[in-house]
Amino acid sequence: MRKQVDKVNQSPAAERVFDAIHTVMHLYRSGRSQAFRDDEHGITHMESRVLNYFAHHPGATQKDLAAHSGRDKAQLTRLVRSLRDGGYLESKEDVKDRRSTCLQLSPQGQALHGELMKSGAQILERAVDGLSSEQCEELVRLLEIIQGNLESGR
């Protein structure tokens, strides 16, 4: 029988890298969640992600959102309904498929999305404070290597 090699347990550096990535993402999400709680609109993190999707894909359907996000359709239905009820999303009948509804940000949704992007940018700027643009580029390059390794299944 061939002996399997456990590379993860032999590489404390790899563990430290992923602990750091996890901690950074946790702090970022925590900061975003706090900004959402402090916001007078009372929008949740998931609602902001739905808004962001339709900001970048105006006229997409809820089915498109489900395919993109991999989220449960019932959860997405609740999120979309909440955003429509809040006046942040508008819907139109799909001219190609009358059974589908195309969604886009309302003017109110566009304004809210702009505010959310601004608050997110402030958190990102604080996160990279003290790093040069060259260091940021190098970090991105290294993370892309990690991403590629994981996507290829190595």
Automatic annotation (TrEMBL):
This is MarR family transcriptional regulator. InterPro entries: HTH_MarR-typ, MarR/SlyA-like, WH-like_DNA-bd_sf, WH_DNA-bd_sf. The keyword Endoplasmic reticulum does not apply. Gene3D superfamilies: Winged helix-like DNA-binding domain superfamily/Winged helix DNA-binding domain. The keyword DNA-binding applies. Coiled coil: none annotated. Residues 14-148 form the HTH marR-type domain. Keywords: DNA-binding, Transcription, Transcription regulation. It comes from the Bacteria. The lineage of its organism: Bacteria, Pseudomonadati, Pseudomonadota, Betaproteobacteria, Burkholderiales.
